[in-house]
Amino acid sequence: MAKFNLGSESTFSMTFGGTALTCIQTIEFSSTAPVQEIECAGATAVEQIVGITRHTVTVTGALEDDDNTLLGIVDPGDTGALACDPAGTTTGHLDFSSTNGTVTDRSVSLPVNGFSTYSVTIALDDLTIGAN
Description:
Elongation Factor Tu (Ef-tu), domain 3, 8-stranded antiparallel sheet, globular
């Protein structure tokens, strides 16, 4: 099976709150589940209690001269559904989605020499990984 290439902007798509995120360079999904361990004096075992799974996605991309619209939809506190199709909408290819996410962090880098970039972190209420 062929590997998909995130650099292929002709097929790659990602939306947040129904608006496309553009010029994406990297996307990183992360899922964690905190584990609480309990051990009493003299016990021969450790009890582990798994907490609620947390999901985040961090998106970095290049900024165009007129990307005020893009930055306007990824203000900290903004919410919306997320859809990510790294290899386009071809049947059988990976698909990531969330019914709701909240922007928790946004940074913008504006170097004197080089590309202007943005980075956005979104805390996801849920995460579904499947195929189109």
